[in-house]
Amino acid sequence: MTQMHPTETAEQHAAFNARIARGEKIEPGDWMPAEYRRQLIRMISQHAHSEVVGMLPEGEWITRAPTLKRKTILIAKVQDEAGHGQYLYHAAETLGATRGEMLDALLSGKAKYSSIFNYPTHTWADVGMIGWLVDGAAIKNQTMLAGCSYGPYSRAMVRICSEETFHHKQGKEMIVQYAQGTPEQRQMAQDALNRWWWPALMMLGPHDADSPNTGALAGWGIKLKTNDEVRQEFINEHAPELLEAGLTIPDPDLHQDESGNWIHGPINWDEFWAVVKGQQGLNKERLGARQQAHDDGAWVREAMQAYAARQMGQAAD
Ligand code: ACO
Fold first, then answer.
1. Which of 96, 134, 155, 243 lies 20 to 30 Å from 41, alpha-carbon distance?
2. Closest ligand 1 atom, CA of 213?
3. 227: Cβ below 6 Å to ligand 1?
4. What Pfam family is a match for this entry (predicted)?
């Protein structure tokens, strides 16, 4: 049973649900329940914030990339993430959210962004491991969202996923190379896996039993798979590949069951919530960097507004 706003009728909801059941895309001007709109704004804006904050842990390494080729790839990747943020902010704007409201929510700490970006990048291998694991997890989730019922979000996801696929491949290529390299390189790759494995599993969200939003999102065709289903797909693809690369997954309980699924040990959800709430990890530093970028960009916003006002004035003349 989904929430109904006092101004909405059961007939409106029934007609809307029938559209979802027929697999139709909902477009910006279409009637939609207020709660559908609210859920999408929450999710898409948090996703946009994640893309933009996600530039920070990797961006730190642009000046320290070991070769020109790696530096060029990393610059392109970080730039792609900024583009993903743009598509997603635009998708949320089609639902009536303004850029100013969304940025205020991020900078005031009201809106969430992905827990994964509150973890530090200690070595260059972390950059590769982010590509392989974090982008790998993001793709699993976002391939599912490419089929979601809201047209602008689903179309943004198609484009984002194709770019993320390159990010994933470059990370995997880098780590596989280090895992077969010198003892120091192998150790660096292993240490990075030890740091990123559990956070990558956590970033796909709490277990289904502890996920308050999944029911409504699944009912409306926004989430086509649950958090645990996406996590299982992620582990099934990545566990054998990491082992094949000669790395050790830091989970003594990890095993394959009779159906072929890789089963993980207990996840430390206390750590997850502490990181989400900013009690652990780099939340303060990440928001500080975003606030600084926002303040530094004030003159650009002012110049654009002045330019737009002049254009309008000329058009009126
Ligand atoms: N980091 C921070 N908060 C999280 C995370 C996470 N990794 N996972 C779940 N949460 C939050 C949810 O936002 C929700 O809080 P809210 O109601 O205050 O917004 C709460 O935990 C409970 O979780 P769920 O009910 O499971 O939330 P939901 O159904 O929205 O599922 C998920 C979470 C899977 C992240 C979903 O929102 C989603 O698919 N979002 C779009 C994709 C996205 O944002 N990806 C981020 C990474 S993108 C990248 O790597 C560049």
1. 134
2. 25
3. yes
4. PaaA_PaaC
Q: Is 134 in the pocket of ligand 1 (CB under 6 A)?
A: yes
223: Cα separation from own chain's centroid: 14
Q: Are 170 and 131 in contact (CB under 8 A)?
A: yes
Rounded to the nearest 5 degrees, what angle is found at the Cα of 80, between the Cα atoms of 76 and 81? 125
Q: Is the Cβ–Cβ distance between 250 and 244 less than 8 Å?
A: no
> pTM higher than 0.90, yes or no?
yes
Q: Determine the Cα–Cα distance for residues 150 and 222; give it in Å rounded to an integer.
A: 7
Q: Tokens for 54, please give them.
A: 């996600």
In whole angstroms, what separates CA 17 from the centre of its chain?
27
| Closest residue by Cα to residue 88 from 132, 148, 137, 29 | 148
Q: What angle do CA 167, 156, 98 make, to 5 degrees?
A: 115
Nearest alpha-carbon partner for 221 in 16, 61, 74, 79? 16
10-281 maps to CATH 1.20.1260.10:
yes
Per-residue pLDDT of the chain (317 residues; tens, 9 = 90+): 567 888 999 999 999 999 999 999 999 999 999 999 999 999 999 999 999 999 999 999 999 999 999 999 999 999 999 999 999 999 999 999 999 999 999 999 999 999 999 999 999 999 999 999 999 999 999 999 999 999 999 999 999 999 999 999 999 999 999 999 999 999 999 999 999 999 999 999 999 999 999 999 999 999 999 999 999 999 999 999 999 999 999 999 999 999 999 999 999 999 999 999 999 999 999 999 999 999 999 999 999 999 999 999 998 88
Question: Which of ligand 1's atoms lies nearest the C-alpha of 84?
Answer: 51
- Residue 20, helix vs strand vs coil: helix
